[in-house]
Amino acid sequence: MKIHIYLILFLTITILYNCKEETKKQQKPVVSIVKDTIIKKEETKIEKTGDSLNRQNTTAFFKEYGKQNKETKVVIKTKFGNIKLRLYEDTPIHRASFIFLIKIGYFNTTVFHRIATDMAIQGGESDYKISADIRNKYKNYYLPAEISSKRKHKYGTLAIAREVENNPKKQSNPFNFYIISSKYGAPHLDGDYTIFGEVLSGFSTIKKIANVKTTSDDWPINDVFITMEIIE
Questions:
Q1: Number of domains into which the chain is organized
Q2: Which segment, 16-20, 37-41, 49-53, 136-140, is predicted with the most confidence on average?
Q3: Which tens digit of pLDDT belongs to each residue from 6-43?
Q4: Which residues lie below 8 Å from residue 28, measured CB to CB, with a gap of 6+?
Q5: pLDDT tens digits, residue range 64-76?
Q6: Pairing, β 227-230 against β 73-78
Q7: Is 50 exceeded by the pLDDT of residue 58?
């Protein structure tokens, strides 16, 4: 009789332990749960956005949008701290596009996805389907280059990435931005990419992000999620 009781107790404990272990496997890290909540919020925001932006009317759209949305200061929030940015008014199309993407919540679905060692940190991509859905909604539009010989890739420069091949007009990819993290700058990039802003504060945050461990393709092993807000 005692053997039966011990056997039942053993089986009960084993089942409870296995259930507990299975629950652990199913649970997501806290940061992922929080980010998933943000993603759901941004999905709702995107669905309610009824604008007419597409590949054909990009310049006209942002000229008008820029007149109605004149903000020039934004903040990027990460788990390592904040980065405050100033957007240049003499790159009106890039400034307006950046403000637009912040307001519709695009960057809140993305991460710093590339750490170019001793040069720059790049953001604007993610593994979330919503990020691709937003880009597809606007036909993955491009921006006309607003390159100035006066602008240099110094420490803290904010610029837009672009495709290098088959892009003679050096059109920008508005969904991918980068910040120069090297104190020596990146002069080899001058004249090839549109610089449209600079860092006002948060250089210690940039340094922390620049030092995270990455995979062989420069993607951080632990995602550095982005939340962007407009200051003024």
A1: 1
A2: 136-140
A3: 434 443 434 333 443 333 333 333 344 445 655 555 55
A4: 36
A5: 999 999 999 999 9
A6: antiparallel
A7: yes
Is 6 part of a structural domain of the chain?
Answer: no
Regarding pTM above 0.85, the answer is no
Residue 182: CB partners within 8 Å, gap ≥ 6? 118, 119, 120, 155
194: domain CATH number? 2.40.100.10
Q: Print the SS3 string covering the chain.
A: CHHHHHHHHHHHHHHHHHHHHHHHHHCCCHHHHHHHHHHHHHHHHHHCCCCCCCCCCHHHHHHHHHHHCCCCEEEEEECCEEEEEEECCCCHHHHHHHHHHHHCCCHHHCEEEEEECCCEEEEEECCCHHHHHHHHHCCCCCECCCCCCCCCCCCCEEEECCCCCCCCCCCECCCCEEEECCCCCCHHHCCCCCEEEEEEECHHHHHHHHCCCECCCCCECCCCECEEEECC
Range of the domain at 154: 30-230
